[in-house]
Write a structure and sequence with these properties.
Chain lengths: 384, 384
């Protein structure tokens, strides 16, 4: 009686982990939560009563004009020229994945994804019946594998900047190579870019879609990591040919995004407060990344390998002697430690012994304590 | 290259009307906007800084616990007993239509809808490939026609209370009859109930789903009409068997709803401010309904027939000599008057000469002026 796609709604494993991770006393590296200390300190008194009151009525599906213009201007700064007409304000960038799934996918549509890739994107693509084709992304992207897959897919979903979970950031040369491939094969490129501003060492290269000449494309970003996820505000920018469809899909999904959040974020962008906010937040993230790097080096070096991520929110750690990361996750939970098993990010379901460790939410002293605990559990496993 | 469903995304006609309707100088009966004067006067100072700051982080997919409990308590008051666990907070009730479409529909799934019915529900169902089967709802619901269709459908979508566009409200006896039919035939009932609180004469009977014994069901409501559409906040309540799927679909769609809006509405419900707010708003709506009833009687009686709606936001007016309401709409627009052609609400696309006139947004003097203008245009048409 239910639609067939409901059978493809993957298990609630991850929801369960995240629920347990919130138990008092649990050290959680499981979620992707921004540091509480880096969240926007929302100043509602900055909003005029007139603006507030007008924001209570229905608004435009595309989003508030002023916010769309600020987003377009910000995009130009990072190398993606677009008009405000190409900006669609989203109820968080997860919604962009839903809209693009509706736009592009039906049962059996071949989609290129990285392996590993963002869990909730894989879930949405599967829900809509995608046939996922994977390109390995372990110690860098495999451009040859990517080139080999291109002729057989309609859509390529990539997170080229500080990817969740691998942390990998495509070089400018790699971005140009992939853009040339989608142009050659007429593949639509969907670039997911929520972590760009969380760059701890050097800024990321321009978006991959900015190097496209002829192919269709959708790019999306988020205010969840830079300002506050609770505001549920993201945006997408797309090739002009796709905009009318995406706007109608957004309208059918929820008419338009929350206007209060749009007002708050619009006011922050208009008054130039984003840069100072990031200048305050980034040191917090950098400190936690460095704390986790040090703790890993101190405790886990004999059992694991990893790259220190140049941005984003995660370490992607390969455990030498672990081949069942789900079992390890359960073991960790029994010891009040929450981690994400790498297998959850693999479209093919292979378990390569990776775990994803979030470094942004726990304070440095808890990071130290949690990594020591993980090392203890892994070392026992190694001996067995 | 795009998904086939995109061909079923209906034309932007209505978006175009609504865009034109906002032109200065246009009298608009086209949209379904609440009266500006009845919108929530949001008092952000009532929110504690601690609450505000905690609302900036990611939140639960199901919605804030306190808000879900208040919704469940409110439902009990109107005769629908449910647990807070059965409440899912939505980004406006349009999102419920999207989630239920995903839950129930695939290409060819037979769905019972009223004719006329809410335009954007028809659009969503069509997008997901539904085979729409219509039951007439002109001067009351045709229970025999409904009973005849029941054995052949999986889902019935009904708006039994002050329906958009017809304004019709099912009696308690009719509600019980339909509930018995869905029980007998094992059809899932989707009851859309955004207008319940906008009752100008007597309160509406208990929700139809409250009379169900065994069938699956989903009920949804909205804070858009009672408080403010810009907050984008609605809710659904469902049979316990459906909740796990609906929660996962919500998670895949946008992770969770805006927390600031949830905080604002939760605080209003907790402090008992909804009832006084409605006591202030309803007279505004009642006055405008009565103004339109009087204007229709004064100007349009020779050319049209209608029922005065006991609630909701619309008059559904049958024009005796008009058989192309789309042409009439264009004629009206040329004369700075916006109306909705009835054909847009008919799943079968038949034009029975109805127009939908919103009475909530325009002030009484503009209602008078707009109806006089409409009568003039219709009278000319009648003579031709």
């Amino acid at each position: 009686m239910l639609a067939k796609r409901i059978e493809r709604l993957t298990s609630s494993l991850v929801r369960d982990i995240l629920a347990v991770a919130q138990r008092p006393g649990v050290i959680s590296f499981a979620g992707g939560l921004p540091a509480d200390e880096a969240l926007l300190n929302v100043d509602l008194s900055a909003l005029s009563p007139e603006l507030l009151s007008s924001a209570m009525q229905y608004g435009p599906t595309e989003g508030e004009r002023g916010l769309r213009e600020h987003v377009a201007a910000r995009m130009a700064e990072i190398g993606l020229k677009c008009r405000a007409d190409q900006v669609l304000i989203l109820n968080g960038s997860q919604q962009g994945i839903d809209l693009v799934s509706k736009l592009m996918l039906e049962e059996g549509t071949p989609v290129l994804v990285e392996e590993p890739a963002y869990l909730a994107a894989l879930q949405s693509f599967k829900l809509f019946g995608a046939d996922l084709r994977t390109v390995p992304l372990q110690q860098g992207v495999n451009i040859d594998a990517l080139a080999a897959l291109m002729p057989s897919v309609n859509l390529a979903y990539l997170t080229p900047t500080f990817q969740n979970p691998s942390g990998y950031c495509y070089s400018e040369a790699e971005r140009k190579s992939v853009a040339a491939l989608v142009d050659t094969h007429g593949v639509c490129l969907f670039e997911d870019d929520p972590y760009r501003e969380l760059a701890y060492d050097t800024p990321a290269p321009a978006p991959m879609v900015s190097f496209i000449q002829s192919a269709l494309w959708i790019y999306q970003g988020s205010f969840s990591k830079t300002l506050a996820p609770g505001l549920r505000l993201g945006f997408l920018i797309a090739h002009p040919d796709l905009m009318p469809h995406l706007i109608r899909l957004k309208q059918a999904a929820d008419l338009h995004s929350n206007r209060l959040s749009q007002l708050i974020v619009g006011q922050i962008l208009a008054s130039g407060q984003l840069a100072p906010h990031l200048a305050k937040s980034l040191p917090i993230y950098r400190e936690r990344r460095d704390a986790m790097a040090a703790a890993l080096q101190r405790h886990l070096a004999p059992y694991a390998s990893w790259q220190v991520p140049a941005g984003g929110l995660f370490f992607w750690v390969k455990l030498a002697a672990v081949n069942d990361t789900l079992a390890l996750m359960h073991q960790c939970l029994s010891n009040d430690l929450a981690i994400m098993p790498g297998v959850a990010f693999m479209a093919g379901g292979r378990d390569d012994g990776y775990v994803r460790l979030n470094f942004s939410h726990a304070k440095p002293e808890l990071i130290e304590c949690g990594i020591a605990k993980l090392a203890q559990l892994v070392s026992v496993q190694q001996k067995v």
